[in-house]
Amino acid sequence: xxxxxxMLCAVMLMLTVCVGCSDETLDYNNPDVDLFVKxxxxxxxxxxxPKGFVEVPNFTEKDIPALLKYAEDMTIIPSFPLPPVxxxxxxxxxxxxxILWIVETIRVGNYASLGCKMVRANAENYEGxxxxxxxxxxxxxxxxxxxxxxxxFPRTVWxxxxxxxxxxxxxxxxxx
Length: 176
What we know:
- The protein is mainly alpha-helical.
- A two-stranded antiparallel sheet has the order 1-2.
- It has helices at residues 2-21, 33-42, 64-68, 95-108, 134-151; strands at 76-77, 93-94, 118-120, 173-175.
- It has five helices and four strands.
- The chain is globular and about 45 Å long.
């Protein structure tokens, strides 16, 4: 009986060690989009910036196609790593909308906003009544995808598009 108990304890210890070893770490300066999304969905994203804060990793323009793969995912995630000076808000955090925030941050070269939610253009503040619906976020995702695809072609003197580099232009949506 004692031998069986010791054997069972040894097996449990090995399983615990093996499960602990399977945690994948994300490199802040060379992040993997799929691993980042996996960690966001599971609620165990903990990668820290060089300043010591849990923040979105250092994605670049080369990551935009991989990020846009997740832009239409309306999965509610437990949390999203916003900048340390971010605005607090109540409400659900959708993965796709958060991903669009990252794409917008890359596009503009600094934080897209202090929160990872889009609001209607006429929003007076950052209240839930101004947040976008799932359908509106899907529309915004389509606009970002169109923006990215159109950027693959060079802009010429014949390009007449006031919204060439503004994905949300004319949508009625904006980042707060």
